[in-house]
Amino acid sequence: MRVLARAGALAALVLSSWACAPATADTAASKFDTGHQFVVVTFANDPYRPPARAGSTGRRYAGGSYGLAQGARNNAQRVAATYSLRQVASWPIKELGVHCVVYEIPDSRSITEVLATLTRDPRITLAQPLQEFHTLTSEAAPGTYNDPLYSLQTNLVALDIPAAHQRTQGAGIKVALIDTGVDSTHPDLRERISGTRSFVTTDFLTPAAAAAKPAAAASYRHGTAMAGLIAAVANNKVGIVGIAPLARIEVFEACWQLKPNTDAAACNTFTLAQALAAALEARIPLINLSIAGPADPLLSALVQSGLKRGVIFVGSAADVADAFPTNIHGVIGVANSDAPQHNQGEATLAAPATHVMTLLPDAQYDFESGTSVAAAELTGVVALLLSANNHLTADSIVSLLKSTAGPAMQSASIDVNAALAKMDAERVGRLARSSH
Q1: In terms of domains, do 355 and 212 share one?
Q2: For 23-41, what is each residue's pLDDT tens digit?
């Protein structure tokens, strides 16, 4: 993706990438859009506690032991007063042993004039402009993709995924896919599958199914389709775009295809229990269950154990009551927003899931429908949100998506970009309040 960062957006990106809360209230990117100019100034910062990890915040930092010394804080305030500057952001940088401050020049003075004055001040260790940077690539412009089947992915437009991808693409998030196997050789899944474990043997197949069992990759239709919806590679000039194209998928094979060339697959308590236990043991924070079946005490106990540890489960809403996994409180059940409301079952949210383009084994593509699709889409959405803020819980994600949703059971019922924008606005608000 091509990055074109204005000075203010770049500074906001640096702050968020260090996971730090600047010491002052004025930290929103919009504060850099005043028409004024900005300078970056550093002061010697001898920590009064042993150093910890880099990228702490200013006076409000509480996550480690490297903080802002009183002398550096006083110098920053005095410089602002002496030279009529307005402090808009700050953070101590452990690696350099300095406190870094961004000042706005609130009048008509030029950057050159202000820097000439600042560099003569003995309290200051560095003074420079707040500069703008660009990458030098010629990939697809923001909001567009070179994947040839993207134009058929109307679900991405309905969910506002292209705009959301300018903010996050799911980097750093691992998803457990409990399903059939996945064709990891598919060109649109290259480097998206981090591993595969199988808990299926021929013991679970009827004699007819065992005799008709296709080659491994061909029998992975359902799992491959779900993996593609979640994380198909973007801008590789192949096929489609996944909702979270930088997320990684760990496959836990617990289901088996019932007939050749069909998506119908089955699982049982034993295979699902093994897969769930393995996914929980692997400490994967997000688990997709594009399946449905009867209430099951063992599986419910495993899911509830994961929920207590903060694992997020996404499941397919069935059109019957008390169906696993959406019968468990805390599981995010997802319905097809294109379907009639009376067929939604125990749904928490809805996503467009009728004739959605995705992957099939052996480098193929096709349209899929059903709440399995809706669950996989929502799993991708959750991966995007977690990548932007890994402190989100299942409850906070549901609340965020519902508060930014369109009309219930419409194809635009989830607006991912709106959810990300609200999340960012709330974070800026918290930072502003904490600085007072």
Answers
A1: yes
A2: 333 333 334 444 568 888 8
Residue 173 shares a structural domain with residue 28: no
Render pLDDT for 170-193 as a digit per residue (tens, 0 to 9): 999 999 999 999 999 999 999 999
**Which one of 107, 135, 163 terminates a domain?**
135
Output the domain CATH number for residue 261: 3.40.50.200
3-state secondary structure of 341: helix
Residues 75 and 171 in one domain: no
Helical ranges in 83-220 per DSSP H: 111-118, 154-159, 161-164, 207-211
Does residue 47 sit in helix, strand or coil? coil
- Please give the structure tokens belonging to residue 50: 């042993």
Q: E strands within 242-336? A: 248-253, 255-257, 265-267, 286-289, 293-294, 312-316, 323-324, 332-336
* Closest to 79 in 3D by CA, of 35, 47, 126, 10: 126
* Tokens found for residue 378: 């929502």
CA distance to 16, 55, 62, 227, per residue, from 20 (Å): 6, 6, 10, 33
Residues 46, 124, single domain; the answer is: yes
Q: How far is CA 280 from CA 203, 258, 277, 396, in A?
A: 25, 27, 5, 21
- Mean pLDDT for the stretch of residues 128-154: 69
Please give the single-letter amino acid code of residue 406: G
In terms of phi and psi (left: phi > 0; alpha: psi -120 to 50; beta: otherwise), the region of 391 is alpha
Helix crossing, 221-231 with 371-388: angle to 10°? 40
DSSP 115-130: HHHHTT-TT-SEEEE-
252 and 305 part of one domain: yes
Calculate the average pLDDT of the chain.
Answer: 80
Q: Do residue 159 and residue 127 come from a single domain?
A: no
- Count Cα atoms within 13 angstroms, Cβ side, for 428: 16
> Are 79 and 154 part of one and the same domain?
no
Find where tokens 């193929």 sit: 364
Among 71, 103, 135, where does a domain finish? Answer: 135
Q: What are phi and psi of 149, to 5 degrees?
A: -100, 5
Q: Helix, strand, or coil here: 408?
A: coil
Question: In whole angstroms, what is the distance from residue 39 CA to residue 103 CA?
Answer: 5
pTM attached to this predicted model = 0.67
Expressed as residue numbers, the domain containing 48 is 7-135
